[in-house]
Amino acid sequence: VLLDGVDISKLNVGWFRSYIGLVGQEPVLFDTTIRENILYGNENITEEQMIKAAKEANAHDFISKLPE
């Protein structure tokens, strides 16, 4: 396997690992409202930004159909 034309077995493992990361794909929902789950980590976003985030996550239609 090559990375930028260099055999990865010749790379310094510590250096290589410092440039990569893992993003898990398992969704996590906290035991609170959907709104608070969307706002988690950034409570200062506007209502429009929150709706945009829900739309980008393909969740807005589903959320809109839920009972209050």
Keywords:
68 residues; ABC transporter domain-containing protein; 6% strand; two-stranded antiparallel ribbon; Type_1_exporter; mainly alpha; elongated; ATPase-coupled transmembrane transporter activity; P-loop_NTPase
Which ranges are low-confidence, i.e. pLDDT below 50, for 5 or more consecutive residues?
A: none
As a whole number of angstroms, the C-alpha radius of gyration is 19 Å
As a percent range, the share of strand residues is 5-15%
* Approximate helicity band: 25-40%
Distinct helical segment count: 4
Distance between the termini: 52 Å
The ordered string of helix (H) and strand (E) elements is EEHHHH
Structural class: mainly alpha
Mean pLDDT comes to 91
Strand runs, count: 2
Largest sheet: 2 strands, antiparallel
Query: Which geometry do the CA atoms define?
Result: elongated
Q: If strands are numbered along the chain, what order do they take across the biggest sheet? A: 1-2
Protein name: ABC transporter domain-containing protein
GO cellular component, one term: plasma membrane
GO molecular function: ATPase-coupled transmembrane transporter activity
Task: Walk me through what this model shows.
The chain has a domain at 24-68. It has helices at 13-18, 34-39, 47-56, 60-64, and strands at residues 2-3, 6-7. The protein is built from 4 helices and 2 strands. It has a two-stranded antiparallel sheet with strand order 1-2. It comes from Bracon brevicornis. InterPro entries: P-loop_NTPase, Type_1_exporter. One of its GO terms (cellular component) is plasma membrane. GO terms for molecular function: ATPase-coupled transmembrane transporter activity.
